[in-house]
Amino acid sequence: MRRFLLLIAPLTLAPLGLSACNQPDAESQIVAPEQTEARGNPGEELYQKHCAACHDGGNAEAPTKAALQLNGVEAIRASLSTGSMKTQASMMTPIEIRIIADYLASPSSESAFANAKEYRCKGQLSLSKPLWNRWGNSKGNVRFQSTANAGITAKDVPNLKLKWAFGFPGSARARSQPAVTGEAIFTGSQSGLFYALDTQTGCVWWTFEAKAEVRNAPTISTDRNGNAKTLYFGDVDANVYAVDAKNGELIWTRSVRDHPVGTITGSITLHNGRLYVPMSSLEIINAYLPDYECCTFRGGVLALEAKSGDPVWRFYTVPEPKKTSINTAGAQNYGPSGAPIWSTPTVDAKRGLLYVGTGENYSSPANDKSDAIIALQLDSGAVEWVQQTISGDAWNAACGKNGSQVNCPKEDGPDFDFGAPPILTTMANGKDIILAGQKSGMLYGMDPDAGGKILWEARAGMGGFNSGVHWGMATDGNTLFVGIADTPGNRFAIGPSRQGLHGYDPATGKALWSKFEPNVCEEKAHKCMTALSAPPTHMPGVVFAGALNGILRAYKADGGEILWSTDTRREYETLNGVSARGGSIDSAGPIVAGGLLIVNSGYDKFGQIPGNVLLVYSAD
Predict the structure, then answer these.
(1) Angle value at C-alpha 213, between 131 and 113, nearest 5 degrees
(2) Which domain holds residue 83?
(3) Strand pairing of 432-437 and 562-567?
(4) Which value, in Å, is the radius of gyration of the alpha carbons in the chain?
(5) I want to staple 8 with a disulfide (CB 3.0 to 4.6 A). Which of 12, 91, 182, 420 is the partner?
């Protein structure tokens, strides 16, 4: 799945030393001036030898050199030495890794821990009930906020102004969607530092140092009085953490990785004393290597006891991969594989079920659980039903014009994941429905009482590897709010681009209204695209949505009229003194809680606009 190559971390250096990257096409074989000028600079020479073919435009998934240079030296070294790029950098010596990290790292990057210590709050943190919790603010992942918890009304929205900005040191992206109480904003960062920030001033109540980047949204458990008690989140190295919400002290941690490049992308779901952890992986990148034995990762869900982290059950989306063939580079191939779960599981307590959406297979043969909505029994993880909307979808990074092709499965796409979590909601007629949006651009209404039977389907976008519904939708049960990205260049696209915000009837799939967002300039660049890849958030009368060009808007919930808009793609004076700027808004959508509108700005993949800032707006 291409869209979710966005998720590589802790630092998304594209595969260093890849033979595929070092065999550019004819157009890229012209020696650039900077390559000839590199002689005598060992860092630049190493960059040109191992990295330039991908990061200077040879690989669409790779961050640009400018984006890499926003990272701190520790993050680059960790990624190449022990992190997600360890396999790809295995041919480099420790000295070479140090040289290239020192060369690429921003000279002004700060130690995140030292910076946080300098801007500590005074006193002791006392917590009340969560105002925004989990990725979707409910077990049904509806992304709806009540007026009481929002703390603002539709009339206040035109008066929103920036209250404060917080910069993440040594970072090129800001993608951990916060959880919020009246007193604190809880969020992770690319550096691996997890923060509790004061809602009013942005000072740091406490920090917790995870082992790797924290990019998902924390989930908060509550005490008997309903007040915030424990935070649960995962990191890119597939470690799960339980942390005291008041002081940041570790309660327990557990590695749930059962594959060398397994990771956690979606957020963890808490229900009835159990945690449900979605499992994805970075193996789609490893497949880029011609001599890589592709592929053996199995997507799935792991259930843990919330008190202890002890495992309860594990479900896999594919059977144990078996040997299939030898590729042209002489490497053994395996299959089926993949079908990762990129998003947050959805709980159906009434039926005792857990709903998850799956991605494509990584290698042939494609199986019956990829590109599907799957219902699992909460108690055992047993499969209740599977609704697959697209069969025969297998894809990895070896496919496409920039891929090596050697490990590309015969299906070669279309890479149409369910990257957005399924929504469970109750409609105006009192009936429950499952709502699912796919990268194909299709929307589905499914019956939870009839084995996921498709009640209706509708085309909301043209679809493609970076198009359709990416990260999520929102609903109040009366209207389904759908953000569409529809970026150009998709060989499986159907019809014209429909980037923008759309309203649908959840009962019938009938289109109610559309607010199309035309490009703001002629180039095919993210700075031009008001494409809505990040999930929208709904409160009574208003839908908030952020775009790939950095525009953050409030739309009228009935018709899509723009009520308020701001451009986050600029430099900011931050309260913690970190040099920061906004960029693309992707993966982590805006949230509204306690009178505040909160959004991350900055994303460093696919040529998007890097940034490292958390922005907090209020109508005060």
Answers:
(1) 85
(2) 3-104
(3) unpaired
(4) 22
(5) 12
